[in-house]
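# step 3/5: fold
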Amino acid sequence: QVQLVESGGGLVQPGGSLRLSCAASGSISRLNVMGWYRQAPGKERELVASISTGGNTNYADSVKGRFTISRDDAKSTVYLQMTSLKPEDTAVYYCNTRIYTGAWSYYWGQGTQVTVSS
């Protein structure tokens, strides 16, 4: 069984920074692509950023230049460094990781709230 546990969310003023972490635990044989999604009230869940096993990254246009995704496979952890935060970044942030435990499957974290407000 695999669990993804997110941390690092909270309330921050516009222009501020936060760093999200997502640690995977359980019967993990291999990790593949790791990513962050977000869902604001009344909106669909959207991809924020993803990172491949080779370190190739992909970002939503709305966060390019402000957010940085990274991973530490030794810790089975993916990070999202968020800077220059805007009120429109307010959402629940979810990590999503493709993991091999005998078969490849995608797993979701429980979500962490990020609120950008003065």
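# step 4/5: annotate
The chain has a mean pLDDT of 96.
# step 5/5: archive (pending)
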